[in-house]
Write the structure tokens for this entry.
Amino acid sequence: MTLHLSLLGLIVVFALIGAS
Amino acid sequence: RPWSHILLAVSPFLVLAVLTRLLLSAPGSPVIEWLVPLAGVLVVGFLCKSNTLFTVYAVGAFVASLVLCGNYILLVHGGGYTGRPSVSEHGWRATELNSIRAAEADLQKTFREDTVVPEGPVATLVGNEEYNHVERAYARRTWHTWLTGLYAIERHDALVWCQGGEPGVLHDRIVIREK
């Protein structure tokens, strides 16, 4: 479950970096 | 960036969505695991000016999505979580009903028609220890259920208990009792 949530978080963080 | 580029980048996620939906109907299928990466690709596709960065993000998000879908499958097949609580609970109740039916049949074999079966654990009454080792399971919401759609499976040790009565009317006198 930890892997699951951290991977989802990473996707969102990188999307925000890529979008900015 | 043309629409076709963005559509091309999100199409693998749609394929993944269809595949997981078709293959994983009973224990639940991943949604957020492909939806979040897909949304990320859309956002980056519209706002990021660099094509290289967009490609790197799209490939990375797809790999992450594959890992997430794989992990979801492992989680629901490992016995710790379920994505479809009602389907799982229906299965568990059916198993309990099977134990009750088997207990009823064994009690009717053990006790004569004109006797009264005493109250007690079925394992002791029929001499089969298996009736002391049954399980009662529940699907419980956890803090991340709103996001992952996964419910934690809670298991309790239980036994088959007879409340006593005549052998002919036992079917509603046998219950699963948690230890």
In short: The two ends of chain A are 29 Å apart (CA to CA).
